[in-house]
């Protein structure tokens, strides 16, 4: 549902219910301001809109937590040992050190036996030398060339890419092209009355549904989308006769009936361009959506 506002004798809009709620919560408008949407005869106060949510009063900050004193660290006293225990401990350490030193300096019979056992005889040394020469003379194993066994890239990956927009010649190609995420983070959609710039994001799905996001530039994120549907159409320009392909988002009015919005035309540069005419005193502007989930919000 798209809504117009009437403030100071001037009409502003269009606004979605989500955007209107944001203006109410930021106190940019009040429930006494007048609004109109397709399906009603006269202007009504914003407070009479279905699902109207009054601006919540500012919440008082909670009191700070009490500051508790930090208890002092208690250090237990070290136990005192008699002097004679310290003397005995030092003497024991000295004796143990002398025993280990003497044991290390004196070679044992076992070490001599091991040394004589590993001494090579001339025959054993000659055999070991011949085996080393044999190993060095053997040619190195040729590594297997795995390059030839690698599977070439599949053409299925190329076929999954979106069509070149300049070569689209039927509706099936156009439907395949528009599926994806499209973002408009520009400044063309600016409301001079409230001094706000609006951004849009479309998530177009292959099942015929569309997630529609529209937020002010001061938002922290894209928020929750409105669920819509869409059609992919084709036609010809009346001045040049050139054929074009485009996508038309479909919203609903206050009675739940389909409401077709403006066409976003597929450009040769790969963009979606939506031209909005001047309506009820609002200036005309053009939105150029680019492919990709862009995050334009300042941290």
In short:
The chain has 299 residues and is an alpha+beta fold.
Strand order of the largest sheet: 5-7-8-9-10-12-13-14
Distance between the termini: 31 Å
% residues in beta strands? 25-35%
Q: Give the tally of β-strands.
A: 14
- Biggest sheet layout: 8 strands, antiparallel, barrel
SS class: alpha+beta
Percent of residues in helical segments? Answer: 10-25%
The run of helices and strands is EEHEEHHHHHEEEEEEEEEE
Average pLDDT level = 74
Number of helices: 6
* Structural Rg: 41 Å
Shape: elongated
Poorly predicted tracts of residues: 108-125, 131-159
Q: How would you explain this protein's 3D organization?
A:
With 299 residues, this protein is of the alpha+beta class. The chain has helices at 17-25, 83-105, 109-117, 122-137, 155-159, 171-178; strands spanning 3-7, 10-15, 34-37, 44-45, 180-184, 190-191, 196-204, 209-216, 226-236, 243-252, 258-260, 264-266, 272-276, 285-291. Among the domains are: 3-48, no CATH class; 165-291. The protein is 23% helix and 27% strand. The protein has an 8-stranded antiparallel barrel. A 4-stranded antiparallel β-sheet has the order 2-1-3-4. A hairpin with a 6-residue loop joins strand 9 (226-236) and strand 10 (243-252). The chain is elongated, with a radius of gyration of 41 Å. Residues 108-125 and 131-159 have low confidence and may be disordered.
């Amino acid at each position: 549902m798209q809504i117009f506002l009437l403030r100071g004798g001037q009409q502003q809009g269009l606004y979605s219910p989500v955007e209107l709620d944001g203006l109410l919560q930021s106190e940019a408008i009040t429930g006494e301001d007048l609004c109109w949407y397709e399906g009603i005869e006269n202007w009504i106060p914003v407070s009479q809109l279905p699902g109207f949510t009054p601006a919540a009063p500012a919440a008082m900050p909670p009191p700070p937590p009490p500051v508790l004193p930090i208890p002092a660290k208690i250090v237990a006293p070290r136990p005192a040992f008699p002097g004679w225990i310290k003397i005995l401990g030092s003497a024991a350490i000295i004796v143990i050190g002398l025993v280990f030193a003497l044991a290390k300096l004196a070679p044992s019979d076992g070490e001599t036996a091991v040394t004589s056992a590993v001494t090579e005889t001339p025959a054993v040394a000659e055999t070991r030398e011949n085996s080393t020469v044999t190993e060095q003379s053997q040619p190195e194993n040729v590594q297997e060339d795995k390059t030839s066994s690698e599977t070439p890239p599949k053409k299925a990956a190329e076929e999954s890419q979106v069509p070149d927009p300049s070569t689209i010649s039927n509706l099936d190609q156009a439907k395949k092209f528009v599926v994806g995420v499209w973002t408009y983070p520009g400044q063309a959609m600016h409301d001079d009355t409230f001094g706000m710039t609006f951004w849009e994001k479309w998530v177009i799905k292959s099942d015929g549904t569309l997630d529609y996001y529209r937020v002010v530039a001061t938002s922290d994120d894209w928020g929750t989308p409105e669920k819509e549907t869409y059609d992919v159409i084709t036609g010809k320009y009346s001045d040049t006769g050139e054929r074009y392909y485009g996508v038309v988002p479909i919203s609903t009015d206050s009675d739940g009936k389909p409401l077709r919005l403006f066409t976003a035309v597929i450009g040769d540069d790969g963009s979606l361009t939506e031209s909005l005419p001047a309506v009820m005193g609002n200036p005309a502007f053009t939105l150029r959506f680019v492919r990709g989930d862009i995050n334009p919000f300042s941290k």
